[in-house]
Amino acid sequence: MALTRSALRLFSGRFAQAYQVRSYADASSMSLTFAAPAQVLYNNAAVKQVDVPSFSGSFGILPAHVPTLAVLKPGVVTVFENDGSTKKFFVSSGTVTINEDSTVQLLAEEAVPVDALDISSAKELLSQAQSQLASASTDIAKAEAQISIEVSEALVKACE
Q1: What does the pLDDT look like over 100-109, one tens digit per residue?
Q2: Which domains does the chain have, with CATH numbers?
Q3: Is pTM beyond 0.90 here?
Q4: CA distance 145 to 45
Q5: Is residue 77 within 8 Å of 94, Cβ to Cβ?
Q6: Which of 22, 93, 137, 153 is 20 to 30 Å from the Cα of 101, by its Cα?
Q7: Which parts of the sequence belong to the F1F0-ATP synthase delta subunit C-terminal domain (predicted)?
């Protein structure tokens, strides 16, 4: 029993030291790398915040964010730059990695600036995807059509 108490005192002392050393409260920006297969949108750029759509719900990333790995769902990624401007990009899917040192990597399958999107084309894609689902005869075709519908709905929403 005495050995257990000594071990607990030793552990709690080290935990308190580690807790005091790790502090992100003074961080005002983070390093963002944001890329898609054909382009690099940000390469270790200092930014204030990034909002991302994920399957566990949309969330904002600040410099002191807990390390995280998440899957991006179709939607809008908003980057808040240090100069106060914001840039919005539509992503179809991808991953986001938030590291302990306040670096963030966004790897998207596709990334397009929201202001480059066309709502009539997005609605046409949605209509085509819905037609594909209605005519799908196999489970694979139905799943592919459902994915197309999900991306197209998010695309239309991003345009509005």
Answers
A1: 888 999 999 9
A2: 30-114 (2.60.15.10), 117-159 (1.20.5)
A3: no
A4: 37
A5: no
A6: 93
A7: 117-158
- Give 22-50 pLDDT, tens digit per residue: 444 345 789 999 999 999 999 999 999 99
Taking the CA atoms of residue 124, residue 129, residue 133 and residue 138 in that order, the dihedral angle to the nearest 10 degrees is 140
Pseudo-torsion of CA 32, 36, 40, 42, nearest 10°?
Answer: -20
Chain centroid to Cα 94, Å, comes to 8
The string of pLDDT tens digits covering residues 51-60 is 999 887 889 9
H or E element: which one contains 158? helix 139-159
What is the separation of C-alpha 105 from the centre of its chain, rounded to a whole number of angstroms? Answer: 9
Picking from 62, 88, 63, the residue whose alpha carbon sits closest to that of residue 77 is: 88
Measured CA distances, 158 to 55, 78, 130 (Å): 17, 11, 18
